[in-house]
């Protein structure tokens, strides 16, 4: 039998703050450290001084990204420390919700669908506690929650294992890149340094001869993963998307320029586009390979190196959740230019790795669907 509770009967909103010290930089967790769809925080810390008061968190607390709520970011604090003021630190009301079930509940579509519905603001929709606390949710008895938690955590562990294997495949690709070409920004083979702007076409213009009556792929930011997958299955009429969106074509590289998508690694090679072209979020930069000079997968791999993204973060412009990488960063980024035949050999290696990743991704998606079905049937 389900019982309905207000959210403030389910969760405690911890609002204690402090001004960060130099020591706090090491354990600071920002919204950029939370990965959509994962309860695990695998990186933290800041290389620059942290400004403004931050929320105090304790190991085991649930960290909720309240800004840009549509990204569905919730995770378990891996240690004591401080958390972004653009988030919430939540603890369970254990007389109502099991402490092991609580993080799974917060990460569920059941919770996020309602939280997103009441979020406010157009540019960075934000969840406010005064509205969230009033929401009502059905919960099963505590004993049922405990049983559900055991099953769901077992599936969640399997999902994280798949993610680790996918990450290991990405690391293998990066190692192969370094083996063949050297570290990005260096020229160990004396091929000569150039720039990304010289060996790719950046943000190419839409051609004037596109069919105005045809459908083309539409790629929102949510359709691009952090591991190189682009879902190009959505199609829209040219008339709906030809203005106000970013144009790209088959084989172009998409690079998310806005925080936190850039830091999280969103991007990939656009493949399987309807009628060979697509339109998408204005928060993408596009890199187009130049025939006989550069290869799509070689270009994409450059953008995926942690060093490339760390350098990009340092030159971002804007404030808060609206910081972006300027196109000048890509245009001027120094890179050694290997022969095209080596780039294509590397591309073949990546495509083989992608087949392995796709199999893992399908298995992970099936496990995630099982989790969602169990929650949907029981709460």
List the helices and strands and how they pair.
Elements: E1 3-6, H1 7-10, E2 11-14, E3 17-18, H2 24-27, E4 54-57, E5 62-65, E6 74-76, E7 81-83, E8 87-92, H3 101-106, H4 109-117, H5 129-132, E9 136-139, H6 142-181, E10 193-195, H7 196-199, E11 200-202, E12 215-219, E13 235-237, H8 238-241, E14 246-249, E15 253-256, H9 261-264, E16 267-269, E17 277-280, E18 284-289, H10 296-304, H11 306-314, H12 327-332, E19 334-336, H13 340-378
Parallel strand pairs: 12-17
Antiparallel strand pairs: 1-9, 2-8, 3-4, 4-7, 5-6, 5-8, 10-19, 11-18, 12-13, 14-17, 15-16, 15-18
Helix pairs in contact: 6-13
Q: How does this structure look, described?
A:
This protein is an alpha+beta fold and 379 residues long. It has 13 helices and 19 strands. The chain has helices at residues 7-10, 24-27, 101-106, 109-117, 129-132, 142-181, 196-199, 238-241, 261-264, 296-304, 306-314, 327-332, 340-378; strands at residues 3-6, 11-14, 17-18, 54-57, 62-65, 74-76, 81-83, 87-92, 136-139, 193-195, 200-202, 215-219, 235-237, 246-249, 253-256, 267-269, 277-280, 284-289, 334-336. The strands form 6 sheets. The protein has a 4-stranded antiparallel β-sheet. A 4-stranded antiparallel β-sheet has the order 11-18-15-16. A hairpin with an 8-residue loop joins strand 5 and strand 6. The mean pLDDT is 94.
């Amino acid at each position: 039998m389900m019982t309905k509770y207000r959210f403030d009967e389910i969760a405690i909103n911890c609002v204690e703050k402090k001004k960060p010290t130099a020591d706090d930089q090491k354990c600071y967790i920002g919204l950029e450290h939370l990965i959509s769809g994962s309860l695990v925080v695998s990186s933290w810390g800041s290389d620059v001084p942290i400004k403004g008061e931050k929320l105090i968190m304790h190991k085991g607390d649930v960290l909720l990204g309240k800004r840009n709520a549509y990204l569905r970011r919730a995770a378990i604090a891996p240690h004591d420390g401080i958390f972004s003021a653009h988030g919430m630190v939540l603890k369970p009301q254990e007389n109502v919700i099991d402490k092991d079930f609580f993080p799974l509940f917060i990460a569920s579509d059941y919770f996020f669908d309602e939280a997103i519905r009441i979020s406010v603001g157009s540019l960075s929709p934000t969840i406010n506690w005064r509205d969230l606390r009033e929401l009502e949710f059905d919960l099963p008895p505590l004993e049922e929650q405990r049983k559900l938690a055991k099953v769901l955590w077992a599936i969640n562990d399997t999902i994280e294992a798949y993610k680790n294997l996918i990450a290991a495949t990405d690391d293998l690709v990066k190692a192969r890149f370094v083996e063949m070409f050297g570290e990005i920004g260096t020229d160990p083979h004396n091929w000569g340094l150039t720039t990304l702007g010289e060996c790719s076409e950046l943000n190419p213009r839409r051609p004037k001869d596109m069919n105005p009556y045809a459908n083309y792929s539409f790629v929102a930011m949510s359709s691009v993963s952090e591991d190189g997958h682009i879902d190009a299955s959505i199609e829209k009429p040219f008339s709906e998307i030809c203005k106000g969106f970013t144009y790209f074509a088959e084989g172009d590289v998409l690079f998310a320029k806005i925080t936190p998508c850039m830091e999280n690694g969103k991007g990939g090679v656009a493949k399987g586009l309807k009628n060979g072209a697509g339109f998408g979020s204005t928060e993408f930069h596009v890199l187009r390979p130049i025939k006989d000079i550069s290869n799509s997968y070689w270009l994409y791999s450059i953008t995926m190196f942690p060093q490339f993204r760390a350098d990009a973060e340092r030159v971002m412009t804007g404030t808060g959740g609206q910081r972006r990488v300027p196109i000048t960063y890509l245009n001027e980024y120094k890179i050694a230019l290997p022969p095209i035949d080596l780039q294509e050999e590397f591309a073949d290696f990546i495509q083989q790795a992608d087949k392995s990743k796709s199999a893992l991704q399908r298995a992970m998606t099936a496990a995630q669907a099982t989790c969602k079905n169990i929650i949907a049937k029981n709460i």
